[in-house]
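Consider the following assembly input.
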Amino acid sequence: MLFVRACAPGPPALFCFLAPRIELRTARSGGATKMPRLTIAIDGPAGSGKSSLAKRVAQTLGYLYLDSGAMYRALALKALREKVALDNSLALEDLARGTHIELKPPTPEQEAAGSKNRVFLDTEEVTQAIRTAEVAQAASRLATTAGVREVLVAEQQRAGAGGGVVMEGRDIGTVVFPRAELKIFLEASPEVRAGRRWKEHQEKGEVMTLAQVLEEVRERDRRDRERKVSPLVRASDAVLVDNTAMDVEETARLVVMLAREREKELSTAAGREL
Ligand code: CDP
Ligand code: CDP
């Protein structure tokens, strides 16, 4: 059985799925109106800045942050360890059904070291272990299996139900939350994306040339875009944001502004219905 416990920082585990609702007094009605809490979907290719952006936006808005890619990575790590062939769909689906994955907020030390979600695989912490190029490649191979996606998507939908969530991945705006109130498709040039990843590898003391990282990123992008099930594609109603020349803060400011506008639109529409 696969389980994702996604907790916003602060509340005890018991309340993990209970996103706090903000109560507002509107001048018009004088009554209490609930400020809408959006579902924000962020999709894009490897290294485009999804996790950094999603985490920052969630912090600013007081939303839950969920990294769907971490789930594919955790399962891939288990498949590699248990030597399950990455083209054996039935075995991979069985593995997914028999796996327990938890996402939790990082400790302050982990946060300072760049972790955005803590990841537990069958109770073992694998936050760092899943961040290798080998696991990334295995994740993108295993992610082509329809049965695996079915299991993980159901968990993602359950974890994000109720709104007040920023989820990032490849198919969030198209498959996981097709009715998300705000969808962002994040892009950056392959060279810049590879450069960002290469820097991360350098900082961790992993020896990889920039050319190797670029090749890894290109191969994964191609597989993610060309697979039959839930390929990486921009949803028709997603806002395309190219952050090749933008830093995380600038990109987050833009997305928070879009989110506030959507919150206001929905709140006004709800007010009209009162
Ligand atoms: O989640 P995804 O693979 O899309 O990217 P990320 O992990 O958020 O970002 C990869 C690296 O690029 C991180 O080290 C970010 O700090 C960095 N980055 C950046 O330098 N400028 C941006 N606009 C976005 C991310
Ligand atoms: O951080 P980065 O963008 O490099 O990758 P990730 O988000 O951690 O995802 C690793 C792999 O999982 C991707 O290359 C995809 O193949 C797969 N994935 C997916 O298929 N669907 C998602 N919603 C998230 C990740």
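The chain has ten helices and ten strands. Ask yourself how this observation constrains the way the partners meet.
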